[in-house]
Amino acid sequence: MALVFSENSVGLVSPKVARFDQPLALACGRQLNEYEIIYETYGELNEQRSNAVLICHALSGHHHAAGYHSVEDRKPGWWDTCIGPGKAIDTNKFFVVSLNNLGGCNGSTGPGSRNPETGKIYGADFPMVTVEDWVHSQARLADRLGIEQWAAVVGGSLGGMQALQWSISYPERIRHCVAIAAAPKLSAQNIAFNEVARQAILSDPDFLDGFFIEHGTTPKRGLKLARMVGHITYLSDDSMGTKFGRELKTSQLNFDVNNVEFQVESYLRYQGEEFSGRFDANTYLIMTKALDYFDPAAVHDGNLAKTFAHAQASFYLISFTTDWRFSPARSKEIADALIAAKKNVVSVEIDAPQGHDAFLMPIARYLQAFSSYMNRIEI
């Protein structure tokens, strides 16, 4: 049966592709001579071109943030909870742009794309990209769309880091920076988790030094393990306990290390299997490294307040009590630096048991706080 869209859905959407022939210099010292960015838009750009909002995605995200690609779809875009008519990012008010970053595996130029210089799939030859590189490419997309200034740049997790970088790299082109469940840089523990995930991929015999596509293989075991490790960090102990506890999948223990015995084991294996069938291993390596490298204060000897000295945006920071990956203390670091830099900042801590993934969920207090701020943005 065909899907009937609710009144607060953006409905059917179609991705668009912007092709760029102007070389993009990257922080790693290499450049992309040509590339494509896939994106979606929701709502209408007003005559003054003053109501545009950019959505920046997290590690495994992509351009499809809201609505449906066909009437047969059963699952909407990854942030449909927050984007649409009457929602926090109200498409009756805002023109919303959501894209897949360079290095991704959902339509933008990345490791699975063909290298125009060699005619072969990039694979491991795709250059390393950083948060700053993404922001520069996003600015070019804004130019293409005729958007001189974003009403807001919004993102959660790695997306929030991109929003922060926008306020630093292009202070005159962003009026509001909304960073949700984000951090000014990764802790050693976070880098360690990313390294374990990368090693799971790199040690998979089917990875073949990153050139698995041309050999017709997929490092599914490595990707599966990487996702399982990552997924544990996205949830809180309380949420996992509430959802699974120590419930058994069958009525009794099997005393067999090869069997799935606990419900939480079954859940993690499902998540890993699903992810390994749709995500690119090289993209996972690139995205986690971009997370590790993000540290905009490094050029100012670690002085975050000095880093934000030229920012012109107003800042809205949201954190979640049980998010131990990017804890509320990390948002407080950002807020303290912004206050020291005499910037306009509002910081909200939401009591939620869901952990880091809370920014993706329909938590009433979170949506209320998010909507309240977005509704106050003048266009």
TrEMBL record:
Residues 51-360 form the AB hydrolase-1 domain. Pathway: Amino-acid biosynthesis; L-methionine biosynthesis via de novo pathway; O-succinyl-L-homoserine from L-homoserine: step 1/1. The record marks 325 as: Important for acyl-CoA specificity. Its EC number is 2.3.1.46. Substrate binds at residues 227, 357. Its main location: cytoplasm. The active site is at 157 (nucleophile), 323, 356. GO terms for molecular function: homoserine O-acetyltransferase activity. It is found in: Cytoplasm. It is an enzyme of class 2 (transferase). Pfam families: Abhydrolase_1. It catalyses: L-homoserine + succinyl-CoA = O-succinyl-L-homoserine + CoA. The keyword Transferase applies. Keywords: Acyltransferase, Amino-acid biosynthesis, Cytoplasm, Methionine biosynthesis, Transferase. Belongs to the AB hydrolase superfamily. MetX family. Transfers a succinyl group from succinyl-CoA to L-homoserine, forming succinyl-L-homoserine. Homodimer. This is Homoserine O-succinyltransferase.
